[in-house]
Amino acid sequence: MAVEPAASRPVLGSAPMSEAEEEETRRLRARVGTTLHGKWRLDALIGAGGMAAVYAATHHVGHRVAIKILHPEGAVSRELRARFEQEALAATRLGHPAAVQVLDIDVTEQGEPFLVMELLEGESLRERALRLGSVPLPEILAHVDTLLEVLRAAHDAGIVHRDIKPDNLFVTRDGRLKVLDFGIARMKQGGAGLKTRTGAVLGTTSYMAPEQILGRDVDGRADLYAVGATMFTLLANRRLHDADRLTEGELLIRMSTTPAPPLSTVAPGVDPRVARVVDRALAFQVERRYPNAQTMLADVRAVRRGEEPPFATAAAAEGDARTRVHGRGMGGPPAGAPL
Where does ATP bind (predicted)? Predict the structure, then answer.
């Protein structure tokens, strides 16, 4: 599943592993060949993050799955265990065919929680962009169409994903999109009681809405902002605010105080209709964004038919020429940026 980063795509690429990270990878690979509860044989390490490692595995009756094991240091954290459980609950409640399916949740003999999930073959959207050099616009729009269908169902079920980004969008070998990692999803009811600590930021900075960075309560429009940020990154081959030039703290300040630049100013060759959709999703003020996933989905489908996106076009005509006031402390938003 892993694809080596291409040097020509630095925005979406990954830094080389440190010595400590290489040692951690060796430790995680040492699990390969072991069996969980006498029935799940771990065949290969296929991914690892700050919270968990994912393995391809085979049940003793022969069917193959993916097993996601919480790191030992996370297993002793009540918050991380709750987040892990919430990933299973959110995926199960959603039950959408384009969301990764969680089949079971259990604990290893060493006390580490693990999820049993469907095994996907393919690559993340980030890896795909690295391998191809860029993802064709028709394919991006098709994947966004599917993503918005998943988010529509999630939001209707009271679930806000909160971490939409290219790494969490998986393209299978037959071209289907799967939405991954509901581990920090917010659920209105029936969740694991997970609370965000005061001052804690859950999500990936370059794709987070301003209100999410500021720790305010969020709704589905924060996910739509992340969809816009994902489209912006894939189309412009850069993040919203030149993230590679900023420290994490500077990026947090920039993302929370300054509107995103209009897509047309950094990627002038993009279809203006697509740019209007992206700009509307990235509006700084929550009430200026798409009101829900269905409205954004209707605009995306209009663009796919070669038509004008009705909501984004009407919203732009109504008021985007007014004076911008947000972000002036950081030099002010670029002309034409939705407020």
Answer: 68
283 belongs to a structural domain: yes
| pLDDT tens per residue, range 183-201 | 666 655 444 433 443 344 4
Q: Would you list which residues are annotated within the binding site?
A: 68
**pLDDT tens by residue, 61-100:** 999 999 999 888 777 778 778 878 877 888 888 889 999 9
Residue 334, burial from CB neighbour count under 10 angstroms (0-12, 13-18, 19+): middle
Q: Which run of H or of E encompasses 232?
A: helix 220-236
Binding residue ranges for ATP = 68
CB 80 within 8 A of CB 74: yes
104, 163, 244, 320: which one is catalytic? 163
What's the whole-number average pLDDT of the chain?
A: 84
Q: Look at residue 188 and tell me if it is in a domain.
A: yes
Residues 158 and 259 grouped into a single domain: yes
Structure tokens at 339: 């407020």
CATH code (residue 153): 1.10.510.10
pTM to 2 decimals? Answer: 0.82
- CA angle 306/307/309 to nearest 5° reads 125
Neighbouring C-beta atoms of residue 267, cutoff 10 Å: 18
Residues 93 and 139 in one domain: no
Work out the burial of residue 270: count CB atoms within 10 Å of its CB; fewer than 13 is exposed, 13-18 middle, 19 or more buried: middle
Q: Determine the Cα–Cα distance for residues 38 and 59; give it in Å rounded to an integer.
A: 9
Amino acid at 211: E
271 is catalytic: no
How far apart, in Å, do the first and last CA atoms of the chain sit? Answer: 39
Domain count, the chain: 2
